[in-house]
Amino acid sequence: MKEQSTAAAGAMEGARRATGMEPAAAPQGVEVKRWSAHRKREVVLRLLRGEPLDSVSRATGVELYRLEEWRATALAGIEEALRERSGGDPLVAALAQAKRCIGELTMENELLRERVKKGVLSR
Predict the structure, then answer these.
(1) CB within 8 A of 30, min separation 6: which ones?
(2) Cα(26)–Cα(62) distance, rounded to whole angstroms?
(3) What is the residue-wise DSSP string for 9-28?
(4) 83 touches 69 (CB < 8 A)
(5) Contact 38, 80 (CB under 8 A)
(6) Tens of pLDDT, residues 38-72
(7) Is the predicted pLDDT of residue 20 greater than 70, yes or no?
(8) What DSSP line would sit under the chain, residue for residue?
(9) Handedness of CA 111, 117, 121, 123 (dihedral sign)
(10) pTM > 0.70
(11) Do 100 and 70 touch, CB atoms closer than 8 A?
């Protein structure tokens, strides 16, 4: 039993990602940066322009599956943005209506407070 676990651990020791990089660390001298939306967009645009997936993966150090996810997410976002709906997003419309209602109630409360201060309670 112990020999199998040792052999398995030894096999993982030399493992590499599809990008050719070590799984646990970036190459020496390469600063590991967080992937902002802007940087992801630039990488996805390279893919959409026709650059091969494997060369973009090697150049950026990002796994193939992750690049495919980014591309699929970007294409879904483009499709959503291009849908023709005259009313816009229903959630945005509902939020705007709720904000208007809150504004009206706030004004009404302020007017009632002023009436209470003046002693005028009848309408």
Answers:
(1) 61
(2) 11
(3) HHHHHT---TTSS-SS-PPT
(4) no
(5) no
(6) 999 999 999 999 999 999 999 999 999 999 999 99
(7) no
(8) -HHHHHHHHHHHHT---TTSS-SS-PPTTPPP----HHHHHHHHHHHHTT--HHHHHHHHT--HHHHHHHHHHHHHHHHHHH---TT--HHHHHHHHHHHHHHHHHHHHHHHHHHHHHT----
(9) negative
(10) no
(11) no
Q: Give the integer Cα–Cα distance in Å for 105 and 109.
A: 6
In one letter, which amino acid is 4? Q
pLDDT of residue 109: 95
Q: How far is CA 18 from CA 50, 55, 81, 113, in A?
A: 20, 11, 33, 68
